[in-house]
Description:
Number of domains: 3
CATH topology of the largest domain: Lipocalin
Strand content: 25-35%
Number of helices: 10
Oligomer: single chain
Radius of gyration: 27 Å
Structural class: alpha+beta
Low-confidence stretches: 1-63, 325-335
Largest sheet: 7 strands, mixed
Amino acid sequence: MKKRKAAIFLIGMVMTLSLAGCSKKTSAGPEKELQTTQEQTEKDEETGQDSHSENADEAVSEESEIRFTVVQNHIETEDYYVPEEGDSFPYAFVEYSSFELPDDLKKNYPTLAQSLEEYSTDTYEYAVSTLARAAESAREEDMSYFATSYQESWDLEVLRADERAVGWLVVYYYYYGGPHPYTYFGTDMIDTKTGKTLTLSDVVKDVDGLSQIILENLIAIDDTYVFSEEENAQMLPLIEDMIDGGYLPWILNDTGFHVYFDAYALQYYAFGPIFADLSYEEYPDLFNEDYLPVKEDIPVEERISYKEAEPAGWSSQELEPYLGEWETQGAGDQAGYFVIECPDWEVPYIADGIFDTLTASPVKLSEVSKDSSICLFEEDWSAETGIPLPGDLYGEGYSDDAYYYYADNSADEGRLAVEISEMGTYDFVGTYDFSNYLYTPTPGNAYTTLYIPYAAIYDGVLYTEIAHLTYSEDQPCTGFVVAVEVETGKLLWRSEMLLANGRNFLVGEDTIICGYGFTDEDDYLFILSRHSGAVLEKRKLKTGPDYFIPVDDSLYVLTYDTVYQYLVSEN
């Protein structure tokens, strides 16, 4: 992966999320907002009226209803990529939404109008900057392998528009190559009279108890799926973190309180988005009455219209100033691109200054059971035991309590990388490029191409497994773990070969538990030192290990035809 491709991928993630909150600026500025709020409070005290009541403001009348238009805009590069076969297409395009406001709304709701206009202005500027970056990255890539434009689209739908609140949902979609695009959600909700962006504490009376209520109302894409107790226990702290951090996408619309969780936010990618719906009828005392919808109000679909603007083309010369302006905004500093060095393959590597005092494993594994069958189907075992399998980094990416992980295993195009973002906030941690590890002393063949089966961050260090699934005699440089400093991308150590080719591994305070095996080769479980990658213990297995799954004080190791259960204790 080239640096510029990673840069657009990372910055797009960071900047799009900041865009989702751009309307949080009060259009009149902090001083104006404070003044407006104070004046309204004094007025309420004098009149004895609630500023949110239906008769509180003469501006709220049939002649001053909340009506405006959402415009869908399309901008693209004027230069096109022409593949050897098929239709040509622009190097990049961006679709974004803006607001078109009638004069009466600007007159009767000036702070709301100004907030909506700020959103439109900020969105436009970011969209052009996005197009500039995407186009620059696309022109440097061989695009024939996925034959489409680099693209982002932000599809905005207004879900609430009345005299108390205006709110909308944005579905963000982007694609910059790779096995699949990314889709996630953003929401904004604004007080109609003040233009203030509403927070959970503004609309929910009991924010502390909200996470448990949301958990009880989660709906997967497959609405017949029921989350297990263990899954609920894993998801609850994630929901709490999103609430505490202020990045929970929610809307208070005409029917209730709706929450949107992206793929990866609570479960791994295959689950897809997860939602929660809390109706006003079921939770009548949960919400602030000031922001409940007015009964018999005009439906939002009758207030809001949608239209598409004419597509606009941008030349390289026109985009260049936006590219430079974006670089000076510092967004790129929020996410790094690190090319990981690959030292001499002959011996394990340990960076200077790393000292490891461990000579024996501090973890003791006592075998409890060994259940063998002709062929083990992991999914069936998981369904029978209720123990979930680890996420699949190679196919779909996955998440743990703190991070999302995605592997770019495009070895045939010279790319091998792990892309990581923070859980919930989606702030990118960085792209860690292991492409140097594709060039082994023994090139091998198509069946010996290295890929990244698994990666995990622990205590500021990224541990990455690099392997292939075929005979080591054809490619002896396989099945190893690489430790990299997350903040700098510095290589700390690389283990011996033939230690790890399972679908995951486990990282603890001092150790890494992993395993290696293949048909007609020796199969082992290994305990490595987390600090240096040195082998502290190995034990023979019947067949090659696929999964390492901790449950309470037990460790389950799933191999081709056997399930091992170990009791884990201190040595």
